[in-house]
Amino acid sequence: MDKRINFIFQIISILIFFLSIILFYNRYIFITSDSIFLFLIIISMPILLLFVSLLLRKISNALPVYGNTFYVFFLIVMLISFYRYPMFWFVLISLFLAFISDWELVNEMDEAIIRLPAFAGTIIFMIYLGGLISVSLPTRAPVIIESDISLFKGLGMIPLGLDVDGVFVLSENIDVLISPFIELVFFGVAVLVSENYYQIISYSSRHGSTIGSALSGLTSAFSCQCESFISLLPAVAALIIDVILIPVLLLSLTLLILTYVFVSHFYRSGRPIRSFFVRPKDSSVVYRLLIIMSTVFIPMLLAYLVSIGLEKNFIFFFVGGMAMVLSGFIFAMILFNIIRIKTTSIAIGSVLSVSGIMLSYMWFIPVLTFIAYSDPSFYAVMMITGYSAGIAIGAGYSIMPPLTRYTYLEYVSVVFNVVPLVIFYLSSVMEKHIWMFIPLIDQVWFSLSLWIAMLPVMWYTTHLSLNSFARTSFSINKRVIIGEHAD
Predict the structure, then answer these.
(1) 228-241 tens-digit pLDDT
(2) What sign has the CA pseudo-torsion 438, 440, 442, 443?
(3) Residue 231 domain-assigned?
(4) Looking at the domain assignment, is residue 96 inside a domain?
(5) Of 88, 110, 132, which residue constitutes the final position of a domain?
(6) What is the tens place of the pLDDT at every residue in 288-345?
(7) Which of 189, 59, 66, 187 minimizes the C-alpha distance to 117?
(8) Tens digit of each residue's pLDDT (9 = 90 or more) over 78-113
(9) For the residues 128-153, what does the mean pLDDT come to?
(10) Beta strands, E only, 287-418
């Protein structure tokens, strides 16, 4: 289909959607006076993003697909809201035209099989975890569009963070909370995640022959998993942590943007980043500081905090245990660097890593958690267990073959991120009380704190692995060039 005809389809789709609002306004759609302007901005935002993405087509042929797909998502939400209302058929026609346009744009898109599912999946998960759509009670009332500040005031609350200047679309099918900030953030994060998926998978597959296809596949999978975890953070922030939304949002966007820059501008061109993702030299100040922190500072600091009774704080209770795991891991790396065992084994390293992870999380079992929480002597045993788990994980890393070590770290960091995410889902979304002796809200805050603390660690280990690929490729290419010009 010609691009001009495709553009006409998009314009007709937009006009029909606006017609569905205008024709049934004050008949089946009632908009409160304080939300008319906000609603106009909100329904115009996906269209504006679509036009901007079309104008930037020359930069990337994927941008128009992202813009149009986001518009399609918006229409799907409105279609569900308008189901069993007369305007449903107008929105259905509008959606059909938008789908045709999207199909044509996807055919022009590079690696659509990677980019489009990543974009759509990120949007869906953010909407779900953010709790932006809920099933409404059965009613035959018309569609009511009301500003969120009016509804929040009735509940004694005020909208914060991404909810500011938002509206509720209340129908007999679903209730939807949407704001311009939610639209912008979700679109931007989804685009970054989709592009990072594409960059990482294409980069890893291109280097599969150099480092081994299985290893490159594992690294690609773990790296994409890292991007997914980072992308969910803004949605969770929009749900419960408006107080620290901006720092969390900046953390998420910064990590996603840095990934895109590093992979697209450095790794894919075979240029490793030498100054950031490197192991410190044995004689360096950083290396000595790591020794002091792992063997002296972290254990002493935790011992002092326990002496003043801080272990009764549930966030510290588990984060302190994770700090001991990290301390034991660094100590094991230093110890094996001194001993210098020449034998390498993936099997033994894997067994040690699984054992260390199981030791780390055995105290999450409610019965053991209660014992450690109630008795300081058992809390001390928990700290020692965490340190031992760190040593086991560090030992597993040290006896892994050099090429697989960073992928091993990725695997460990992903596992340590999955657990708090699962706990958060059970606590916040399903409202499951895992530890009956603490309030449910403390359970939510603990899992979220641990998740936020672990994200930068997972991101860093991901780039250690990706950077090692670039370094391996660079050294091989260098040897080839030297061999070709040896004379």
Answers:
(1) 767 776 666 555 55
(2) positive
(3) no
(4) yes
(5) 110
(6) 676 666 667 777 777 777 777 666 777 777 777 788 888 888 888 878 877 777 778 8
(7) 66
(8) 999 998 899 999 999 999 999 999 888 888 787 778
(9) 77
(10) none
Computed from CA positions of residues 257, 262, 264, 265, in that sequence, does the dihedral angle turn out positive or negative? positive
CB atoms closer than 10 angstroms to residue 250: 11
**C-alpha distances in Å from residue 353, one per residue of 213, 251, 368, 392, 395:** 23, 29, 22, 6, 8
- Amino acid 360: pLDDT: 86
Mean pLDDT score, 145-161: 71
Of 58, 76, 110, the domain-final residue: 110
Please name the residues in contact with 53: beta carbons below 8 A apart, sequence gap of 6 or more. Answer: 63, 64, 66, 67, 68
What tokens does 149 get?
A: 């500040």
Tokens of 336: 């094996």
Cβ contacts of 58 within 8 Å, gap of 6 or more? none
Torsion from C-alpha of 292, 294, 296, 297, nearest 10 degrees: 90
Measured CA to CA, the distance from residue 391 to residue 188 in angstroms comes to 40
For the chain, the domain total comes to 2
Question: What's phi and psi for 266, nearest 5 deg?
Answer: -120, -65
**CA 143/CA 451 separation, integer angstroms:** 38
Query: DSSP letter at 110?
Result: T
**Alpha-carbon distance 415 to 437, whole Å?**
26
DSSP 345: -
- Least confident among 110-114, 212-216, 232-236, 469-473: 212-216
Residue 341: which domain range? 277-480
pLDDT at 404 over 60: yes
336 close to 399: Cβ distance less than 8 angstroms: yes
**Distant-in-sequence, close-in-space partners of 173: CB < 8 Å, separation ≥ 6:** 80, 81, 82, 83, 84, 135, 136
pLDDT at 480: 36
The distance in angstroms from the start CA to the end CA of the chain is 56
Instruction: Supply the pTM of this predicted model.
Output: 0.81
Structure tokens, 297? 């500072």
In a domain, 134, yes or no: no
Q: With respect to residue 168, please indicate whether it lies within any of the assigned structural domains.
A: no
